[in-house]
Amino acid sequence: MRLLVTGGCGFIGSNFIRYVLDHYDPEFITNVDALTYAGSLATTADLPQRFGDRYEFMHADVADRDAMDQLLGAHSYYAVVNFAAESHVDRSIASPQHFVHSNVVGVGVLLEAARRHGVKRFVQVSTDEVYGPAGDQEEFTEESRLNPSSPYSASKAAADLIALAYFKTFGQDIVITRSSNNYGPYQHPEKLIPLAIVRALERQSIPIYGDGRQQRDWLHVEDNCSAIFTALMNGKAGEIYNVASGEEWANLDLVRTILTELGASEKLLQHVPDRPAHDRRYGMATRKIREQLGWKPLHRLESSLAKTIHWYQQSRPWWYAALRTTPPGASWPNGS
User: Fold this and answer.
1) Is 312 marked active-site?
2) 55 is known as an active-site residue
C-alpha cells in the first residue's frame, strides 16, 4: 500500500511517517513538502537510511496544480494524508494570505488531483481550534458548529468544509481528524512547549500571554499519529473524528512544570499583552473515535513531557538550525 503524506517534513507529519514505517512493515510513503521554515529536511534526515526504498521525498508546494497532478498521476496511491499547513496562530494574524494559500487553496488542489487520479481515501488533518472557544466544562462533538477565531483556524475550518463538500458532491472518500494541542519531538521552537524548553535551557525570558490561564488539552504526537492511522484504515467515509488526551493544563502551569524539571527560575516568566481573539479554552469529546474505532491515548503528560524535555536537551543542533531559519522579524511570544 502506497501513501502520499503532505507536509511530512513538519512536526506531526514527520512523526506520522516514522510511526507508520516503524509499525507497519508493508507501507511505502512518499513525502511531499514545500520546506518552509517549519518544515526541514533535517527533521527527516534519518528516514532514508532507516527505511530505504520504503520512503521517498519530493520538494513541492501542495498548491502547485501541475506538481500535484504529476505526482498523483505517477503512482497508484491508496491514500493522501494531508498535514501540509501553516499552523501558527500568531503568524496567521500577521500574514493571513499565506494561510489561505496553503490551508485552503492547497487542500482544494490536493482534493481535485486525488479525485482525478482515483486515490481511494483522503485524510484531512485538522484542529480543535475550528470549534472556537469552549466554556469551562464544555466539550464539542464532531457535530458542533464551527466558530473559528483566528485566520489560522478559519482557514482550517474552510479546508474541512471543502473536503466534506467533495464527499457530498463527488462521493470522494474523505475522513477528517481534529486534534488538540500536540507536543513531542521535532516541534518547531515557536510553539509553547518547545519555546519554554529551549528558552529555559538558554536561561532566556519566556513570554506568557496575559495571565497564562488559557486551558489546553495536551496530546502526545505519537497518540495523534496512531489516531490518524486508525482513522485512515478504519474510519467511515464522510466522518469526522475528534482526538484529544483528556489532560487539560493551563499554559502557565505547564511552563512552570518545565522550569521545575530543568531547575530554572520562575523569574524567567514574562507576562506580555494577550494576542487578539485569543481563545481561553478548547474542549472536545472523543467518545466517537474511542467507541467506534477503539482508539485511546497511551501517553501521560507528566512522564511524556519529561521525555520531550530530554529530547530537546539532546537535540540542540536541530533546534538551533530551526531558529536560524525562522524568518526575520517573525519571533512571536508563543502559540497554541
Assistant:
1) no
2) no
